[in-house]
Amino acid sequence: MVKKSLILSLGILGLCVAGINMRNLSKEIKQENIQNATHVINKKEYEFPSQYTEHRDNITFNAEIIVDNKSEKNIFYQGTAIQKQINFEPLRDEIFADSSETVEESTIDSTNYVGEKGKLKIWQTPSEGTLYCSNVNSSYVSPLFYHINQAFTLPENREDESVYSTTDEFTDFSREEAWQQLSVLFEKMGVDLPEEYICYTLPASVMAERESAKDMYGNEDKTAMKNDWTEQDDTYYFVFQSRYCGLPTYHPFAFQQTRDCLENAPIQVAVSRTGLEYLSIERIFEYQQKQDAIQLKSFDEIAEAMEAQFSEILEEKKYTVTRAELKGLEKMTGKSDYTMTPVWIIRVEAEDDSGTYQFQKVFDAETAREILFS
Fold this sequence. Notes:
This protein is of the alpha+beta class. It contains six helices and 17 strands.
């Protein structure tokens, strides 16, 4: 009886030990799975050098690598971009509601650059200027802005120097006050105005000195210049920036002007002490981020793809890559479908017997293939 009890006890003990071992093994397997999963996640985090220097057969890389990521992790997630439908009536009312002149209104049947039929609406008066609105873009130009445009030119990139300050503010008219006015207006239009922007301070006194106008033959035309600049013409010029996964978005203007520069930014607004002077909106998007991350190619792989492409060029030119910036592109995959795509905006300098010039290349950061725009 004691022997049976001992055998039974040993059996139970063996099962307990086996259970403990199984639990330990299960924990080890689970821990290993977690480590593996973490490794996969970390693998999708990107990391790039700040400078890339390499000489290949017919192309030299002496490039500044810019990754302006504002998020906590260097991960680019799959996602989509949905074009916002804008209510332009509040904008029309903002400009023309108090007009003492008759507002001329016209509607034109039009087809936009993606083949969609729609209506182009136009409102205008001699004093308030002209407003154009369609289902994809809108622009407004006041009489004052014609002169502002003859005194101010946007730099190529936000880091480039300008005669006009990006930090100075006017007395009794702050940059924040101007932004708040715009934020209220855009909210009425059904759009959340991005909080990130670069803003140029345009004092009337400086614009009066710098305004320059030419006639159709290239000669100075003083009759087209403003001779009564006042403090009321002090203006802030805003260029707004959207981001996806912490990266700046790249926005080919109307899919035709693809150069990545401030001039082609989708939201630009000028506000003077007296109100709105200029507005340009070209497709505003709302982003929807998914859970799956995208594995980005190394910059070596991007360089190899460029080398293969340039090796097919027969012209005797020297090509140098001087700059590459990682951004998120709202890539059109249908008439109204957009997929968020990581891209490298690459600046190339070409040199031949006739001189030096620059051009831009856009490469998919996931596939290392060039993206071409029609």
